From TrEMBL:
Name listed for the protein in its UniProt record: Outer membrane porin F
Record organism: Enhygromyxa salina
OmpA-like domain residues: 384-501
GO MF assignments: calcium ion binding; porin activity
Main location class: membrane
Length: 502
């Protein structure tokens, strides 16, 4: 969209009244005498001559006026919004731009999604497949501090229904992502990667209510039509949980979106500068005249660091820190999320993944056994802690329930004492069952029993952040399920020390 036609119309409207006032009136020529015939004839000839002269003058004035009117119009047509640039580069992305918009499209939900509220009393615990295509509507906002990089946030809804006709539900998402784009032209390809939440809202007889974490990645193209309007196409893959036990981030739902955005923050057109006399000398060609250039024979390196002195910067060790910023200009920084701002390498002499400045024993590797794993020193797990690992005898529950029996109190109180005496120890509580009954029910029961043990420990003073839980059901027996004694051994609670993640 351009303002050029409107500008030409306004200019013509302003010019025509001036031309009307400038044209000489057509009133006839000199005076008429009421004397003899000769006088009348002479006067008549004079009138004809004057009329011809006036007509010539009018024609000349009209031509001049038209020529004058044409000049502003041509000037206006060449001074439109960046009209001196080719369109393909005219609206390329700029730094510090914002984009606000809407989008619409389709989501192709995976047939094995995890978007339902499980209920053991329902077939497949309430799972139902969604229809293959769902409309996709939403809002997005983005900020681009650089031409080639930005961040965006989105929120959207995807009305859907189940394939078996049980009813409809509303899928929804809230997410954010990083965007990398080739911001050189008005047509800009991009890629993105991000994370968020994917959920469903429906009645329990359809899918219930559920929200799962989700990752997404993909790419597309933006088309900047003018200063304020942009079209956009996205093709993505939404990766979330798959229906089943521990099926994390392995289901894929393609998404195709077409968006319309308003772009904000572009630089205003700069007025054409007045012609200057011959430019002062700039020997190194870096844009700083020699009289203002601290290094007139060495070109400035424009890198957003001391770009005003006209001198190049050096990075002798090639680690991305300029020598004047670099505490160790001849030793490259080791980028490891630890003191990455000083430009110096870090050392780990014993190879235990704990840097020497953090390591209480820099020449002896950490034993990584879940006991004092953060000090960097080798150590042994105390016997009292070792005695409370593996299958814990003495923790029992009411039949087919997650209610802890009173006979378990002594064992649990001993566990509380051990954890209190060793505050650096973190544990995972796992519940196990025998193979009698429905596997899904056994899995749920094992999870609830593990949570019951955690609840007891927390209520008796143990920080809940030190305890994780897991339900295994009957998948990991330690004895045969063919005998009563074997099944009794398989129904157990296990404690495992959580080791340091490297």
């Amino acid at each position: 969209m351009t303002l050029r036609p409107f500008g030409i119309s306004i200019l013509c409207a302003l010019t025509l009244p001036s031309l009307a006032h400038a044209a000489p009136p057509n009133e006839g020529g000199g005076g008429i005498s009421i004397g003899g015939d000769a006088s009348l004839e002479a006067d008549s000839e004079g009138v004809d001559a004057d009329a011809d002269a006036d007509a010539d003058a009018d024609a000349s004035a009209d031509a001049d006026a038209n020529a004058d009117a044409d000049k502003p119009a041509k000037s206006k047509s060449k001074s439109g919004d960046r009209a001196d640039q080719k369109w393909i580069k005219r609206w390329a992305p700029e730094r510090n731009m914002a984009e606000l918009g809407i989008y619409g499209g389709v989501l192709l939900p995976t047939p094995n999604h995890e978007l339902f509220s499980p209920n053991v009393d329902l077939p497949d615990q309430g799972f139902r497949e969604l229809k293959a295509v769902s409309p996709d509507l939403g809002l997005r906002a983005g900020f681009y501090p650089l031409r080639f990089f930005g961040v965006e946030a989105e929120g959207g809804v995807m009305p859907s229904s189940t394939r078996d006709g049980a009813g409809s539900g509303l899928l929804y998402t809230v997410r954010g992502h990083l965007v990398g784009q080739l911001g050189l032209w008005s047509v800009t390809p991009f890629v993105l990667v991000g994370a968020g939440a994917l959920g469903v809202s429906s009645s329990r007889d359809v899918l219930g209510n559920d929200t799962d974490p989700a990752l997404h990645f993909g790419g597309g193209v933006k088309v900047y039509l003018n200063r304020y309007v942009m079209l956009r196409l996205d093709i993505r893959d939404v990766v979330s949980y798959k229906s089943g036990v521990e099926n994390y981030f392995i289901s894929h739902s393609p998404e195709i979106l077409l968006g319309l955005s308003v772009t904000l923050g572009r630089k205003k057109n700069e007025p054409t500068p007045e012609p200057r006399p011959a430019a002062p000398s700039d020997r190194d060609g870096d844009g700083f005249i020699d009289s203002e250039d601290s290094c007139p024979d060495k070109a400035e390196t424009f890198n957003e660091y001391q770009d005003e002195d006209g001198c190049p910067e050096s990075d002798r060790d090639g680690d991305g820190f300029w020598d004047e910023q670099d505490t160790c200009p001849d030793e490259a920084e080791t980028v490891n999320d630890y003191q990455d701002e000083d430009g110096c390498p870090e050392s780990d002499r014993d190879g235990d993944k704990i840097w020497d400045e953090q390591d209480s024993c820099p020449d002896e590797p950490e034993s990584d056994n879940g006991y004092k794993d953060e000090d960097g020193c080798p150590d042994e797990v105390p016997k009292a802690v070792r005695d409370f690992t593996g299958a814990i005898k003495g923790i029992t529950f009411d039949n087919d329930q997650d209610t802890i029996r009173k006979s378990s109190t002594k064992t649990l109180d001993n566990a509380v004492k051990v954890l209190t005496d060793n505050p650096e120890v973190r544990i995972k509580v796992s519940g196990h069952t025998d193979n009698k009954g429905d596997p899904a029910h056994n899995l749920d029961l094992s999870k609830r029993r593990a949570e019951a043990v955690k609840k007891y420990l927390v209520e008796h003073g143990i920080d809940e952040n030190r305890i994780t839980t897991d339900g295994v059901g009957s998948d990991k027996p330690v004895d045969t399920n063919d005998t009563k004694a074997g099944r009794s051994n398989n129904r157990r609670i296990e404690f495992d020390i959580i080791k340091r993640a490297k």
